[in-house]
Write a structure and sequence with these properties.
The chain is mostly helical and 64 residues long. The protein is built from 2 helices and no strands. Helix 1 packs antiparallel against helix 2. It is elongated.
């Protein structure tokens, strides 16, 4: 598996988790409750899934 494909897979995993968090927040708001996930929870997805800019496979795969 190429580094670029692996990185895309990790981004998709983070996106799926993020969408679940957004849905849960919206559900709670619609029921008059406070959102359970704040900015820190969303930002933590970057580290949890290793998708910060230092892990992006910039070099060596320009043709893939």
């Amino acid at each position: 598996m190429s580094d670029r494909l692996y990185f895309k897979m990790k981004m998709l995993q983070a996106e799926i988790e993020m969408q679940g968090m957004i849905a849960e927040n919206q559900y709670r708001i619609s029921n008059g409750e406070s959102p359970v996930y704040g900015e820190d929870a969303f930002n933590s997805l970057i580290e949890k899934h290793g998708i910060h800019h230092n892990n992006f496979p910039f070099m060596g795969e320009a043709n893939q």
